[in-house]
Amino acid sequence: MINICNCKNDTLIMKDRNKTLGEFIIEKQEEFKYSSGELSRIINAIRLAAKVVNYKVNKAGLVDIVGAAGEQNIQGEDQQKLDVYANEVFIQTLINREIVCGIASEENDDFIAIHGKAGDDNNKYVVLMDPLDGSSNIDVNVSVGTIFSVYRRVTPMGTPVTLEDFLQPGDQQVAAGYVIYGTSTMLVYTTGHGVNGFTLNPAIGTFYLSHPNMKYSKDGKIYSVNEGNYIHFPQGVKDYIKYCQMEEGDRPYTSRYIGSLVSDFHRNMIKGGVYIYPTSSKAPNGKLRLLYECNPMAFIAEQAGGKASDGYGRIMEIQPTELHQRVPFFCGSENMVAKAEEFMAKYK
Ligand code: AHM
Ligand code: MG
User: Fold this and answer.
1) Distance 24 CA to ligand 1 centre (A)
2) How far separated are the first and last CA of the chain, in Å rounded?
3) pLDDT tens across 164-192, in order?
4) CB-CB contact of 323 with 235 (8 Å)
5) How far is the CA of 345 from the centre of ligand 2 (A)?
6) Is the pTM of this model over 0.85?
7) Domains in the chain and their CATH numbers?
8) Cα–Cα distance between 337 and 117 in angstroms, integer?
9) How many CA atoms lie within 13 A of 184 on its CB side?
């Protein structure tokens, strides 16, 4: 069997004995006593949808799929924006597999209650997702990602899901992950037992365990924030940015900002760093969505030994009040996020 593994110099080489994602899911399923396998089947469905979306994302530069929804391509077919396409693929894959009772997506105004087929109401999980985050980067060939999050429903089985099933604090997540469509495509996820990353071998369409037990370093040297908004930031964030730039100890830090959350997060988790999308006078609640972006990334960050905050407290303890709620987001290496919180606290 040919597999991929991460070797010392960070390049991927083919090597024997690495697990496929499929093998890993089966192995982990056996670790959860009394589990019915539903969660494993959800991860499996996401794996399939990710491969389909990956295929389209990689063709985006070749085929005239890039462009506004509603326009027609040269064959006279309706064009679909890639984020709309990704939304449909993930939703349809989850519905077809009959494994979830509800889905909420950043692309849809309201949640979807799945109760068309007998038994759907008896599924116990809901999935929340951002099907193609950072999609404005597609047109310029920059990495984008899918973010997903899984919760156990709180309303009784056998009844249609309600808003309550989706408005759960992040610490109730049973799984979360992301797919990064980058120089290589990876699926990174956690079920609350650490974080593992799988790299797609596009030649055979198989994900292999390439980044087992991913961990943030406690400190890092990268700060990621859209500094173009500097003058609109709260004073605590301004002061923290100045602190990052100061020549002292291991500073100044390096500034890296792709503008694609999954990519910025992924780099910082591997190299050590902090990602910040704060409030600003232009966006009083920040830009990122609590349910589709911040909670899943926070769960992954914490499982990797990192920290995720709204500047004052733990992201995963926020009680959501609406599906598309936005929150400020500080996420990354534990000591860096803690330091940013210190600066924020001065102006609370
Ligand atoms: P989107 O969900 O509309 O794609 O927006 C989220 C994206 C994140 O991926 C990224 O970190 C952020 O928006 C960048 O925003 P900005 O361009 O304001 O810096
Ligand atoms: Mg998004």
Assistant:
1) 32
2) 56
3) 999 999 999 999 999 999 889 999 999 99
4) no
5) 28
6) yes
7) 19-211 (3.30.540.10), 222-345 (3.40.190.80)
8) 45
9) 23
